[in-house]
Amino acid sequence: MRAKALFLLVVTFGLAVCQDATESRVETSSKWFPRHQQEDGSWRAEVGHAPAVTGLVLLTYLGAGYTDRGSERENRYARSVHRGLSYLMAQQDEQGRFDEKLGHHAIATLALSEAHWITRDPRYRASTQRAVNYLGQAQKTDGSWGDLVTTGWAVAAIKSADFGGLEVPPRHFEAVRRWLVRGTADSENPRLAAAITTLARIFLGDDPRTNKAIRDGANICAENPPSADKIDPLYWYFATLALFQTGGAHWRAWNATMNEAIVKTQHPRGSGDKAGSWDPAGATATEFGRDHRAVDDVPRGLLPLRPRVRGEGR
Q: Tens-digit pLDDT profile for the chain (314 aa)?
């Protein structure tokens, strides 16, 4: 289900910034999740990973503007969001950790941090701070969090916490910069490496208008647009966030092709229990399942989308 959740997240993000016709697709996908929420408030993949999958689903809702506040009439998803956030906090151990797998912990941290940042609800502050502290302790001496994708999630999480006014020592961002300077090329998926490192540089405060590394990374993403025939949810997710931040012609072109791919592959209304979802696809499909793509295809759901840290505009 994480695979589906990630894809839904990517899709919703792409759709959320579009015209009314695609907004209806976002709503259709948002309705899929409550039907598959567990009694304990989580969302789960066939092979586990409940904190990460739950985090991905929550990012979809939070990115689309749905929090745990308001009456059912004002916010039809408030109860689902509240139950999901409560589940995450209940899973946190004494170390502040949500999951033994660091990447999954980072996703859950990002979701809780986003909830705290948006709502400023004190209920989430202490738990988010402990989760961020654990991430800080887990950072490697080279400035990364191990592999490229885990580092991408971790950077997003600590930047969200920083935006939300939590304590994030500057040394963590300085270490990430050293990691970037040393080089982080991923020979197996260079475009994913370009997307993640471009986004990381923007979060560190580099200006897309003047930073050559950011421009080069954005160019790589622009040269590898999303396609319904070649689904890569993780790449779509991070590239969508990176190009949203850079703005300009690259973002407009990416946004158009993203929406086309998302609409083409979504199960429409009238397709039974699959309505509003996407079939699992891409490298994470086996691990996360249908929920992951449902979220991955809803890319509006991540922190960089609300405020542009640096970008040039649409």
A: 555 555 555 555 444 444 444 555 556 666 778 888 999 999 887 656 789 989 988 988 888 788 999 877 788 889 999 999 999 999 999 999 999 999 999 999 999 999 999 999 999 999 999 999 999 999 999 999 999 999 999 999 999 999 999 999 999 999 999 999 887 656 678 999 999 999 999 999 999 989 999 999 999 999 999 988 888 888 988 998 899 889 899 999 998 888 887 777 676 665 666 665 666 655 554 444 444 444 443 333 333 344 445 444 33
CB count in 10 Å sphere of residue 268: 11
Beta bridge partners of 266: 278
Q: Which residue ranges form the domains of the chain, and what is each CATH number?
A: 2-305 (1.50.10.20)
pTM reported for the whole predicted model: 0.83
The structure tokens 């050293």 sit at 178
Q: Give the DSSP letter of residue 17.
A: T
Cα R_g (the chain), whole angstroms: 18
